[in-house]
Amino acid sequence: MEKLSCDEGDLWDSGVVISNQSSQIEYSGTPLRSRQRCFWKLMTWDDNGYLSSWSEPASWTMGLLKSDDWSGQWISMQQTSLQERKTEFGSDGKEEADHFFECRNSPLLRKSFSIGGTVKTAQLSICGLGFHELFLNGQKVGDHVLDPALSSYHRNAHYVTHEIGPLLVAGENVLGVQLANGIYNQGHPDAWEFHNAPWKAFPQMLLQLDIEFEDGRQERVVSDTSWKVSKGPILWDQLRMGVLYDARREIANWNEPGYDDSAWESAIEREGIEGRLSSQMSEPIKIMDTLKPISISESEASYEIDFGQNIAGWVQLALTGPRGTEITIKHGDHDLVYADPLQTSTYIMKGEGKEVWEPRFSFYGFRKIKVSGLASPPTHDTFTAKVTHTAFDQRGGFSSSNEILNALVERTRWSYIGNFVGIPTDCPHREKNGWTGDAQVAAEIGLLYYGTEAAYTRWIQDVAATKREDGKLPCIVPTGTWGYDTLDGPAWEIAYLMIPWHLYEYRGDKRILETHYQGFKHWLDWYRYHPSANQGQIIHYGIGDWVPIEQETPIEVTSTAYYFAATKRLAAIAKRLGKQNDQEEYENLSEEIKQAFVKAFFDSDTGRISNGSQTAMSCALYHGLLTAEQSSTVANVLVNSIRESDHRLNCGFLGSKYLLRALCDYGYADDAFKLVTNDHAPGWASMIASGNTTLWESFKSEESDNHIFLGDVVAWFISYLAGIRHDPKRPGFQPFIISPEIVDGLDAASGYHISPYGRIESSWKRTNKQIALNVTVPFNSQARIELPANQEATILQQDEQTTGDSSRLQFLGFEEGKAVYLASSGTFKFEATLPSRKQTASLA
């Protein structure tokens, strides 16, 4: 810090760098060591040579980089069984068979230690599996919950780090840890085999506290057999089933100085984990919001409480009652589906005045709860719902003059955050599983709307860790042992390749492509060479277009298309990584697949793909599987069939991603908009009309009330209606495209996205035949702006920085009915006359 104050960098000094790159600049200084604290600052120059002042100093601290950096032992208590509970349930969340199994107590661990002197810094790192909560001197450390995030523990486990210096006191200090089972030690049988997971073990932890004093002394506290352990008030906990908490078993002051732990047992050493232990390099899970009931109704000795919003989280109780009163809370959707046997928490009262309690180590997907066992009628103050999800920042938004679109944005937002509690999931109630297909379809809305890159990067590491020796991936990650040969396929497993590709497109960081490149090839080889799946470059394997409205699409169509997409992307990745031989190999392979696809599925007489479903037709267009002439024919046939059906949606969740984009890309944006806003048939608008507050799993509302995979429509809003798109030739929005679709029936739309270079904005409003477009371009970026017009727009406004500087806005000419501009950083306002619209498809 002293050298930094003298404008000297002893670890790294980049010097003056003449570049417009202000993101993805890798550290290239002296190698750093574990626990090293580093300080940094910077200054910038603009294109006129003006120099900024130095930024305020900031710092970061390195984690524990090697296994040898850990001094402690993995510890726990003797395995115990306090409760038996029955139920085996299937993938639909319904009971299938009775089984008795052991549910283990969640142990408490404590360590007393004394310090003297003034603390400069104190870094504590802990991995407590399956979940843990950390306390110091009676206070919970940090605001994380459900630490660490789920992973395949035999391959990857994560530790978290806290700075606890301000919480330490001179004299005695006490560390307390409560451990829980999670899926690390699942007891109940389920369809996904977590009860037989290869990592399964009793909860255990590894902890290290490194203290540095102002006088230069250093001390270390670690987990070892000197810690004391005891059973606690959580009698059992299971991620899907819930929690049983007996307040009569609470141990007052157990995690505070002065407590007599002489009756506690000594901790025992455990073997620890087989896999890699690394820092949890993503945002933690936190309680992000709270809700109060909108209604309470009584029915058959129980109460139904409606919070008005479907969420992921749990409910805090505040109530009084006699000792031993057993309160049961069942959580579910609007009709309390998936509330039993799943998602049930139980609290046994201690009978000591007002008791405030909330479950830990499990979360629930719910709008309503059903509560039984209350000693007296509840009030609205009895219940508080805690909204819980990974705490990433919001990075995007969309609004418009159409209330259906605005409502879809809000419902998608709730579904997205409710399905990202540590990992991307399918639903927060029935399964809580990391379904890869759901994740890959929803990834673009996640990257446009939230700062999810760290969370996705961490999850993709876990996806890679689940790859079998033959290259095959499962359909859920993490998984016990299930999903390698059931309900999987290219459309799901391609998440391993597509999410890193999207991270590269949206954030510009190619390191994730470098890290996983060999893994991508290994995975693709399974589909390339596996005879039971690949027959003549046609893939006869997979799930297909899940939950279609009516017309199904042959699995071979979507599976082969994703096989092609993976091969095409791998060729593009090879090009960016400078692997020319691989590039040529995968380009040739993709051409083989393309020809096989056309031969197998394209009917030149009818212009249809396969059975002519909306999914099949748009799939071929979206993935680029056709020639230009074939594409034009297929697009024309597709839009005619949509118009003949009065713009009724008829696809599943894969088609929901292709269809709107394909229509816009071939000039039929008005038809795409009508599909979204048609409220007379199953579709997005019917979800809004139903009053549901999140997105359904099925357009027909036959399944879950909270799934995310139909939420890609909001990515379409931002990318097409607001027109904010990354440049396919260059990643990271350094150059980007503004090309809004001015559709009939929509008078205004606006969107924003915070790119690696800053905030991008696009908003337009139509008045009669006039269109006004506002665009903001961040520093070090350029935007290609495409405005529907057949004459140059009037430039009404430029901000102070760009006014009078013609070099920041250039008119490039007219292309396909659009006036095209190139804009450097600044804010611009255009006004133009819309060209006449033409009908480009005719009814057959």
From TrEMBL:
Source organism of the structure: Pelagicoccus mobilis
Residue ranges occupied by any Alpha-L-rhamnosidase C-terminal domain in the UniProt entry: 723-798
Pfam families given in the database record: Bac_rhamnosid, Bac_rhamnosid6H, Bac_rhamnosid_C, Bac_rhamnosid_N, Ig_Rha78A_N
Domain of life: Bacteria
Domain Alpha-L-rhamnosidase six-hairpin glycosidase, chain residue ranges per copy: 394-720
Protein name listed in UniProt: alpha-L-rhamnosidase
GO biological process: carbohydrate metabolic process
Chain segments annotated as transmembrane: none
InterPro entries the record matches: 6-hairpin_glycosidase_sf (IPR008928), 6hp_glycosidase-like_sf (IPR012341), Alpha_rhamnosid (IPR016007), Bac_rhamnosid6H (IPR035396), Bac_rhamnosid_C (IPR035398), Bac_rhamnosid_N (IPR013737), Ig-like_fold (IPR013783), Rhamnosid_concanavalin (IPR008902)
Coiled-coil intervals: none
Residue stretches making up the Bacterial alpha-L-rhamnosidase N-terminal domain: 118-288
GO molecular function: alpha-L-rhamnosidase activity
